[in-house]
Amino acid sequence: MAPKIAFLIALSLAGSAFAQGFKPTRPIEVVVHTGPGGGSDLLARSVAAMIEKEKLLPVRMQVVNKAGGGGALAPAYLAEKAGDPHTLGFFTGVWLTNPITTDSAKVTLKDLTPIARLVLEPALIAVKADAPFKTLADFTAAAKEKPGQLKQSGGSVTSRDNVVRQLLQRSSGARWAFISFPGGGERIAALLGGHVNMMVIEPAEAGEHIRAGNMRVLAQVADRRLSAFPNVPTLKEAGFDVPAVPQVRGVVAPPGIPAANVAYWEDVFRRLTRTASWKKYLDDNQFEDGYQNSADLAKFYDDFTGTMRGILQEAGVKIVR
User: Fold this and answer.
1) Of the candidates 184, 220, 221, 189, which has an alpha carbon nearest to the alpha carbon of residue 39?
2) Coil, helix or strand for 92?
3) DSSP for 101-160?
4) How many CA atoms lie within 13 A of 259 on its CB side?
5) Which residue(s) pair with 65 in the sheet?
6) Residue 42's Cα: distance from chain center in Å?
């Protein structure tokens, strides 16, 4: 074998061995688009704690909140970290819906590197415990009597919060205002403080407030009743024939990281989803196990985007892409 060819083969094998042996050498920056207390923030911090408990990483994970831009700031920040194997992002459906409804949202999930889908998440429609509304029909009836006077706290205008609102308004003929807050903690505080009248909230965010008797759940944004809320109707059971808008949560990396790094992270999250800690977490938070590997997640993007584009159009939201 010619010396030059032998050298090139050896160099290639050495590079492959190095890539296959990738391990993080510094703390992992985990980027979320919500403020403290938001759904993505809670999931990321819980995952970081479970990964540390299960000893799945040699370094720690540090959650970084990049709230702003209607959810567009976090993916844009991640895109700027191109090639960095020590940065991850926890995405939700907003990272897919923002670019199809907002001209200024330039970075899509397809611009980032898919790692794993983790959960599919239902939601609850909640009011303050002492609110006069006992059912969702009570709320929409009151909103009909006083158009625009009742208020709902939520995230960005492309979030599931607002999509559910748009669908319910179209179905019921009622109208109420949407007040956007950057973080889940602020959205909850606005409800409990009496500054808004209703919110769409994930079970993980609502749990402690429901148990403490601070919130009343009017309906579930789900196809079937969750085990923790057997007496609360789904939207369709409550008389509202609207889609149970899906929420998806998973992990992406910056663009341009090597395939071996993708395989490493994919393996970390695959092993996490097989632990007892993860299974308990799903049960405690009423999540559906939605694990997909990086290849399947990439295919899921197209299906989810198509579904959400149809729902958004049905809800009357302007589509720009």
Assistant:
1) 184
2) strand
3) H-TT----GGGSEEEEEEEE--EEEEEETT-S-SSHHHHHHHHHHSTTTSEEEES-TTSH
4) 4
5) 32
6) 10
Residue 9: helix, strand or coil by DSSP? helix
Q: Are 133 and 127 in contact (CB under 8 A)?
A: yes
What's the maximum distance between 2 C-alpha atoms anywhere in the chain? Answer: 86
- Cα dihedral 233, 164, 196, 191, rounded to 10, equals 60
- pTM score, two decimals? 0.78
Q: For residue range 90-119, list pLDDT tens digits in order.
A: 999 889 888 888 888 889 999 999 999 999
Amino acid at 57: L
Locate 147 and state its tokens.
């158009």
Q: In percent, how much of the chain has pLDDT > 90?
A: 65
Within 10 Å of residue 295's Cβ, how many Cβ atoms?
11
CB atoms within 10 A of CB 99: 23
pLDDT at 1 over 50: no
What is the separation, in whole angstroms, between the first and last Cα of the chain? 54
